[in-house]
Structure formats: structure tokens, C-alpha cells
Amino acid sequence: KKINLAVVGATGMVGRTFLKVLEEKNLPIENFYVFASARSAGSTLTFMGKEYTVLELTETSFKEHQIDIALFSAGGGTSLKFAPIAAESGCIVIDNSSAWRMDPNVPLVVPEVNPEAIRSHKGIIANPNCSTIQAVVALKPLNEYYGIKRIVYTTFQAVSGAGMGGWSDLEEGLKGNAPKKFPHQIANNCLPHIDVFLENGYTKEEMKMVEETRKIFDNQSLRITSTTVRVPVFNSHSESINVELNKPFEINELKDVISKGEGIIIQDDVANNVYPLAINATGHDEVFVGRIRRDESVDNGVNLWVVADNIRKGAASNAVQIAEWIIQHMM
Ligand code: A2P
């Protein structure tokens, strides 16, 4: 069966990458639609060598065009309002915003980690936060083989994660111009501030990593803490992940366990200066893992350096993989 597929927020940073990833994957698409706000309605986008006119998203869009699957990346407000309307008309929404992730009726899915959760969807499926996606791909084999007791996340996140505005703040900042998206200059700087601050002193980005990891691993007693930092890198997030496992391990065996994980490429040859780098991860869908070493300050601890393209695996590619899974298993 061929499907009618829509991209909502098609003119944005993730939206444009949806188009690129969809071109590579060759899904069975009958009709293709691109939606954005009234601001860019009427402009055109190229998909599979054909020009598509950007349509303004309205409450009747999904019913009118009989959309089967919609990939949303148009901000939380748009998702909160339009995802239920789409679901109501029989469309399956794969939402990249944070709006629905923690809703108990919405599966939060990384296909390499918990694809079976997709089956219980009621019309909306959430794509996790970019930093969470790459972390759980890297941690899945350890969680399965040894069990995870505690995680300490520290992230080094690219400006592309803040959309077109974030990208332009770094580009303009490098020319000496003041920031518009971030509260401080990002060029030549690190901002320990992603998304808004919460009452507990953490940022929302930090708490997303904590709560989403627990939901994806289906383990509410997992102990997790997080510090998320915006760094002057255009694309691909890097993360230091400190993990305490439930069982003792032998380091070579542990490396072997990680290397057999789905969607993972190990780059760990320090004698030759080989370790994952943001500039090398960009353009790829795999999660790169290196600097794998024992944390000698605790029992059963290990440190990892994990890098992935936050716009591809951290957003667009993960959502398209979910769409592929639905088409293969549920249609
Ligand atoms: P537009 O280009 O019309 O503003 P980014 O995060 O990279 O800035 O992208 C945000 C995306 O979300 C853009 O495609 C933007 O469209 C879209 N968008 C923002 N608000 C709405 C809305 N109310 N309805 C539909 N799309 C929206």
C-alpha cells in the first residue's frame, strides 16, 4: 500500500532534513505534502526532483488530503494543537517536539532500542530529545547485558539543535554580531543553559534526558543526573556519559558488547588519535562511541564519549525510521 505523507514544519532545520532523509529511504509514498506557517506558505521545496508548494497548516489539512503519516517538527505549540486534530482524522503523527513525550498514552521511541512500543500508539508517537536518542542507542547494549544502575550525562550540544535561529547566532556571532536566539554570545563560548530553567535549578533539557531515558528503558528507578551545555559547534552533539552497571565487567568484553549494538560505530583507538568527533558524525545516522574506559572511582563504572548528528539521528532520521517501522509492521 502507498501512503500519503506530510511534513509539518518543512521549511525548518529538521523539516528540510526530513526531506533529505525521505529521499534516501524511498518509502512507498503516493502523495507528498509540505506544511509550514502562513509566513512561508506559497514558497517551494524540492523533493525527489519535483517542486512542492509549501501549504499553510490548518485544522482541515489532514482530513482534506487524507494524510496517513505526518512528520511534525514545527515547535511544541504547533504539535500540542495539531497532533490531536491529525490523529482524530486517522493520521499517525510522529512528533519531534517535546509536547507529547511524557504523555502515558504516547510511545516514546528509538527504533534500535524499543520499537515494540510503537504498537500501542493511539495516533501520536513521540521522537525523543536529540541528546536522549544518541545516549540510549549507545547505552542499550550495556543495559541489556549488565543492567544500568546510574547515569551521569554531560553534553556538548551543537547550535543546529536550536533550529535556524541557533545556527545564525553562531554564524553571526563569529562576525561579531549580537545573539538573537540565545541569551548570551555563543561564538567562542559555552552556555550551560538549554531550554528554560525549572524550579529545581535544572534546565528543561537536562530533565528531558533524565525522564526520557527512564521512559525508553521502562525503568523508573534508574538514577540519572544531567548537565547540558550549548557549545560553538554548528552540527552534531557530543556527550560524556558516565555509567554505573549492576554487574562487574571485563573492559574488552564490554567494548565487544557495545560494538554489537544496533546503529553503533565504535571509534576507539587512542594510540592513533581515533575517537568520535562532531565534524565526522555529521551526515551519518549511526551513533559513534569511543573513549571507552573504566571509571576507577566506583564499582562497575565506565566512561563513554558519544557523538551523533543531532539533526539526522537526533531528529529527522529517527522519525523516518519510526515511519518505516509502521509501514513494515502495521500497515
Ligand atoms: P515557517 O518557515 O513558516 O516559520 P526551525 O525550528 O528550524 O526554526 O523551524 C521551525 C519550523 O516550524 C518552520 O518550518 C516553521 O515554518 C514551522 N512553524 C512554526 N510555527 C508554525 C505554525 N504555527 N504552523 C505550522 N508550522 C509552523
Explain this structure:
With 331 residues, the protein is an alpha/beta fold. The chain folds into 2 domains: 3-128 and 315-330, Rossmann fold (3-Layer(aba) Sandwich), CATH 3.40.50.720; 131-310, 2-Layer Sandwich (Dihydrodipicolinate Reductase, domain 2), CATH 3.30.360. 31% of the residues lie in helices and 25% in strands. The strands form 3 sheets. A 6-stranded parallel beta sheet has the order 5-2-1-6-7-8, with helices on both faces. The longest helix is centred in the C-terminal third of the chain and has 19 residues, at 312-330. The protein is globular and about 60 Å long. It starts with a strand and ends with a helix. The model has no long low-confidence stretch (mean pLDDT 98). It binds adenosine-2'-5'-diphosphate.
Helix content: 25-40%
Task: Please describe the biggest sheet, giving its number of strands, its sense, and whether it closes into a barrel.
Answer: 6 strands, parallel
Low-pLDDT segments: none
Q: What is the domain tally?
A: 2
CATH fold-level topology of the largest domain: Dihydrodipicolinate Reductase, domain 2
